[in-house]
Design goal:
Low-confidence stretches: none
Largest sheet: 8 strands, parallel, barrel
Strand content: 15-25%
CATH superfamily: NADP-dependent oxidoreductase domain
Family: Belongs to the shaker potassium channel beta subunit family.
Strand order of the largest sheet: 3-4-5-6-7-8-9-10
Number of domains: 1
CATH architecture: Alpha-Beta Barrel
Domain NADP-dependent oxidoreductase: 16-308
Protein name: Putative oxidoreductase
InterPro entries: K_chnl_volt-dep_bsu_KCNAB-rel (IPR005399), NAD(P)_OxRdtase_dom_sf (IPR036812), NADP_OxRdtase_dom (IPR023210)
Oligomer: single chain
Number of helices: 12
GO molecular function: oxidoreductase activity
Length: 321
């Protein structure tokens, strides 16, 4: 496993991080301990969670008991209440969310606290001030944001400078071969500002593993077959796209890789990306995606991937390009 520094002055994190939205919120404490143990054995040091991920924070905190605190980086988020209701980013909401996370994670400090979404109902200065207070108190070491626009990021950095608050170090956007919206403005802006990128859904919610075959129902244990996950995947299950994915899987095998490894490698080879968050149901799945770290993809392979998915890539919020 290779490691990179997150942004300008952020923590050193593994190139592949473990996202806990589904793996730790659904598999119970025993399954969480097994997966977290496997992650540590693979050299994964970045663990990303949120108070809205069911009992994932609690399960992660228990799974990490006994592990030296300096051996891993804890990343969590505020904005949503437990259960998914919107709490927002007021000073009170941010503080309440952090206190809940610290208790659940059984720690005195979160290494990275991110605003899960932007809060139009709270003055940005109030949110930045809340992060600044938590930095001063040592309850968080760094902060960032998830799914913010370039305009919102620019405004937050300007406010932080005006208020004398340390700037954010991390952006957490959805980013994968099919969803390239961050390339238009967010990724280049973050590079200019010294903000690292931690990409989530590098496998397009599992689509790029090649497990969904055209003309066949989704596997029983897959996200597309799950009532909670399927609503997020409906737009990905079109037959023409599934056929492209099969071509991608064929390319991966030709390159001596699984489709999952190639998809995560693609993300890690993109300019400005520090780390990619992956989920897994088993230690074996995690080992497969973790092996993407350190893989350098030749330019002809990157170009061929572009050709395979030409016309199917979302590169702006309006649709495909």
């Amino acid at each position: 496993m290779r490691h990179r520094t997150l942004g300008a002055g952020g923590p050193v994190v593994s190139e592949v991080g473990l996202g806990t939205w589904r793996p730790l919120s659904r598999d119970g404490r025993r399954g969480a301990a097994r997966l977290v143990g496997a992650a540590l054995d693979l050299g994964i040091t970045l663990f990303d969670t949120a108070g809205s991920y069911g009992d994932a924070e609690e399960a992660l905190g228990i799974a990490l008991r006994g592990v030296p605190r300096e051996a891993y980086v804890l990343s969590t988020k505020v904005y949503y209440e437990p259960g998914g209701a919107v709490a927002g980013l007021s000073r009170a909401a941010v503080r309440a969310g952090v206190e809940r996370s610290l208790r659940a994670l059984r720690t005195e400090q979160v290494d990275l606290l991110s605003a899960h979404r932007f809060d139009d109902g709270t003055p940005l200065a109030e949110t930045v001030a809340a992060f600044g207070e938590l930095l001063q108190e040592g309850k968080i070491a760094h902060y960032g944001f998830s799914e913010w626009t370039a305009h919102q990021i620019t405004a937050a950095c300007a406010v932080a400078t005006e208020m004398g608050v340390r700037p954010p170090v991390a952006s957490q956007p959805q980013y994968n071969i099919l969803w390239r919206v961050p390339e238009q403005a967010v990724l280049p802006l973050c590079q200019d500002l010294g903000i690292g990128t931690v990409a989530f859904w590098p496998l397009a919610q599992g689509l790029l593993t090649g497990k969904y075959a055209p003309g066949e129902p989704p596997p029983a244990d897959s996200r597309a077959a799950d009532p909670t996950g399927s609503r997020l995947m409906d737009h990905l299950m079109a037959e023409p796209l599934l056929e492209r994915v099969q071509l991608f899987a064929r390319l991966a095998r030709r390159e001596g890789m699984t489709p999952a490894r190639l998809a995560v490698s693609w993300v890690l080879n993109r300019s400005g990306v520090t780390s990619a968050l992956v989920g897994a149901s088993t230690p074996q799945q995690l080992a497969e995606t973790a092996s993407a770290a350190g893989v350098l993809l030749p330019e002809p392979t990157m170009e061929l991937i572009d050709r395979i998915f030409a016309g199917c890539v979302y590169d702006d919020v309006a649709g495909t390009g």
